[in-house]
Amino acid sequence: TGFITLDPGYKNSGSCTSEITFLDGELGILRYRGYSIEDLAEKASFPEVSYLLIFGELPTAQQLAQFDADIKKHTLVNEEMKNIIDGFPKTAHPMGVLSALTSALTAFNPKAVNVENEKEMYEAICKTIAKFLVIATWTYRKTMGYPLNYYDNTKGYVENFMQLMFRLPTGPYAANPIIVNALDKLFILHGDHEQNCSTSTVRMVGSSHAGLFASISAGVSALWGPLHGGANQAVLEMLEEINKDGGDTDKFMAKAKDKNDPFRLMGFGHRVYKNFDPRARIIKKAADEVLNTLGVDDPILAIAKKLEAAALVDEYFVSRKLYPNVDFYSGIIYRALGIPTDMFTVMFAIGRLPGWIAQWKEMRENKEPIGRPRQIYTGHPLREFKSNK
Ligand code: CMC
């Protein structure tokens, strides 16, 4: 019944048409809705870029203010959600808790969204953006045993992230504007990356007309893996290993080049970007700014700088076009900001949320059919039933 093409990992199969993100790995180009990532990272804010990704055009000042106000209508999370988070052990990985809590939001918002109704779609989107940030930070507060914070509607989205994470019950709290600015950039750079594993998952789950919360929850699970969003955690673990070993970066460079040694320099090289990762260039600048301004003195960061400088002039790395990728620098910034290693992938999820929403919305609006790949069966031919009992 028809001819089936086998393409494991969908390396050569397009799953959809999309107007959201353009990516050219050979030339190192990344654009959201036609705007270069360089321009957006430098000139726009994360809420502005979220609006652009989801609705297709940059918002006017009035549209952006309205978007912000509409998000703020939904920043309270049902108190009963706290019973759910209380059921997890303190040692639970934040990504598992985030996926579960996102899915649990469905229980408190059981009405299916009518995607034909623009107002209902808009409200569901604002609700998701508001509640996701709050529950993402709750996963950290839980591991620390801190009381859970609420969104402060007098502050902006990224500033709220810092408050939700780090504000303690007593004393004043003001997020450092340099940190807020660096995080804003990081979130923008993670905003969308066309049909990557988690985004394809969101579209696939949504194609069965499962709701937005359920689809996003599945995206969080897909992002969790070390081959995807988990790579930023691996970079920091490698730097810690080098530090524990005495900090000899030359030794680890030699290991990375030794074909008999499986060790690789984590955070170098990329499957799609073969010249450079445009996001890494922008992040590197932000990382330097953050480290200099905060005057951070951390042996791990010194090791990262030494490795980066050595690899950029090393014949092995240069000839193979192995440049630092986005994960190399993002982990360094997160660490400098005091964000624990197991929260790194949650940071990625917060940045990727508008991309997931945009892709889900596009998929539903384009009335895409349910995702249902075929297979090539390699099992037994028909066998006669004979009990083995
Ligand atoms: N350290 C040392 N050698 C490397 C590295 C590295 N990080 N990356 C690639 N090479 C070598 C590899 O051994 C091969 O050498 P040769 O030609 O002599 O056999 C050559 O470079 C080409 O490598 P490849 O494995 O064929 O390239 P790939 O496109 O299949 O792999 C990669 C890309 C990202 C998986 C790989 O570069 C890697 O493992 N990097 C480290 C892990 C990492 O940082 N991952 C995060 C990627 S960005 C996150 C995302 O966007 O999802």
From TrEMBL:
Name the pathway: Carbohydrate metabolism; tricarboxylic acid cycle; isocitrate from oxaloacetate: step 1/2
Name the residues annotated as catalytic in the UniProt entry.
Answer: 270, 327
Q: Which processes are annotated in GO (biological process)?
A: tricarboxylic acid cycle
Q: Which Gene3D superfamilies match?
A: 2.20.28.60, Citrate Synthase, domain 1, Cytochrome P450-Terp, domain 2
Q: Which UniProt keywords apply?
A: Acyltransferase, Transferase, Tricarboxylic acid cycle
CDD domains reported in the protein's UniProt record:
EcCS_like
Q: Kinase among the record's keywords?
A: no
Which Pfam family, just one, is annotated for this protein?
Citrate_synt
What molecular functions are annotated in GO for this chain? citrate synthase activity
Q: Does the keyword rRNA-binding apply?
A: no
Per its UniProt record, what PROSITE patterns does this chain match? CITRATE_SYNTHASE (PS00480)
Q: Which reaction does it catalyse?
A: oxaloacetate + acetyl-CoA + H2O = citrate + CoA + H(+)
Q: Which GO terms describe its cellular component?
A: cytoplasm
NCBIfam families, per the entry: cit_synth_I (TIGR01798), PRK05614.1 (NF004126)
Q: Which family does it belong to?
A: Belongs to the citrate synthase family.
Q: What is this protein called?
A: Citrate synthase
